[in-house]
Write a structure and sequence with these properties.
The chain is α/β, with parallel strands linked by helices. The chain has two domains: 31-112 and 216-335, Periplasmic binding protein-like II (D-Maltodextrin-Binding Protein, domain 2); 115-212, Periplasmic binding protein-like II (D-Maltodextrin-Binding Protein, domain 2, 3-Layer(aba) Sandwich), CATH 3.40.190. Helices cover 47% and strands 16% of the residues. The protein has a five-stranded mixed sheet with strand order 2-1-3-12-4, sandwiched between helices. A five-stranded mixed sheet has the order 8-7-9-6-10, sandwiched between helices. It has a three-stranded antiparallel sheet with strand order 11-5-13, with no helix packed on it. Helix 2 crosses helix 11 (252-266), helix 4 packs across helix 13 and helix 10 (231-250) crosses helix 11 (252-266). The termini are far apart.
């Protein structure tokens, strides 16, 4: 009898061990996703949240953050397949897409008005004052695209303006101290840096309502060679982004602390936002997941007209619409809006 019980127990133990070993052997390893972003950009805060509170573990993915210097480096790395995902301005990604690179946008990220700063000496107050001036702006970025769109509307020939692509960490100094530029387009969340430097908003920009007009700014793009082979991983990455935006919405103080520390550490102290600065920036910069993709079609028309891209693009050429439903649902749940 005892021998029989021993045999039964042994068989059960062996069975359990076999199942455990099978599970270990067959268990899929977490996918490693290489994500390019700007470590100094508040637009890219959701990816910082994912990294810092390990949201990606929930979905069986590991997010490997790769700091890059602005949208230009991000788009180039994405087009070459050196990264799987890239965060950056809308205008940056229209360029490789129009040139046939394996890139598509998968989600919107932020929307906000573009702000333009000048020195408080009243030398530049009207649109008519801009001709012949030096403007600090990221060439190909969404703010640059929007600014040129407004200039065209105001009848200003952009060929009479000198656009200078200056590192955003020193642009306030270039404007106020060195006086290398006469106007500066501030990226989202960078306004406090200009106010601290003593700069003021461009008067005509404010008076004509452009300072309060929101435009899509940052988006998330994917290398399509990667996405075609890893649809589930892309879907899980989007779910992690949705969770990150939900965390920011529900825990703004904690999120601001995380983001401030992430940016300060990553920039070696060159950019030092306080949590209060970050929370204040959210009064203007809004995180989004979904908007009508046709707005990007209009952007592509302008980009073609300005000579930034070789052709206009359709909605399907710009956007990977396979994730539309989950993004719409996330937008509705978090922001009570379908945009």
């Amino acid at each position: 009898m005892k021998k029989r019980i021993f045999v039964v127990i042994s068989v059960m133990v062996l069975f359990v061990l076999t199942l455990a070993i099978f599970k270990i052997v067959t268990q899929k390893e977490d996918a490693i996703l290489n994500v390019g972003y700007s470590i100094e950009s508040l637009d890219h805060a959701p990816i910082m949240i994912i990294a810092d509170i390990n949201l990606s573990d929930k979905y069986g993915i590991k997010v490997n953050l790769i700091p890059l210097k602005g949208g230009k480096e991000v788009r180039e790395a994405l087009a070459l397949g050196k990264i799987d995902f890239g965060l950056g301005g809308v205008g940056h990604f229209l360029i490789p897409i129009a040139k046939g690179a394996p890139v598509k946008i998968i989600s919107f990220l932020t929307e906000s008005p573009t702000q333009i700063f000048v020195r408080p000496d009243k030398t530049v107050t009207k649109f008519s004052d801009i001709s012949g001036k030096n403007v600090a702006s990221r060439i190909g970025g969404s703010s640059n695209l929007i600014f040129r769109f407004i200039l065209k509307k105001e009848g200003i020939d952009t060929n009479t303006i000198n656009f200078l692509d200056i590192d955003k960490t020193i642009t306030p100094i270039a404007l106020m101290n060195k006086k290398i530029v006469d106007l500066a387009l501030a990226g989202d969340g960078e306004e406090p840096l200009y106010y601290k430097a003593g700069a003021v908003l461009f008067e005509d920009w404010v008076n004509k309502g452009y300072a309060n007009e929101p435009f899509p700014k940052s988006v998330i793009a994917v290398n399509t060679d990667f996405s075609e082979k890893n649809v589930d991983d892309v879907s899980n990455f989007i779910l992690a982004i949705i969770d990150a935006e939900k965390y920011i919405k529900e825990h703004p103080n904690d999120a601001a602390e995380i983001i401030a520390k992430h940016i300060k550490k990553g920039s070696a102290g060159a950019v030092d936002y306080s949590p209060e600065d970050i929370i204040n920036s959210w009064r203007v910069t809004k995180y989004v997941l979904w908007k009508d993709p046709n707005v990007l079609v209009e952007f592509s028309k302008l980009s073609k007209e300005l000579g930034n891209t070789p052709k206009e693009l359709s909605k399907e050429q710009i956007f990977d619409l396979r994730f539309e439903e989950v993004l719409k649902n996330g937008q509705a749940e978090i922001y009570q809006s379908n945009n």
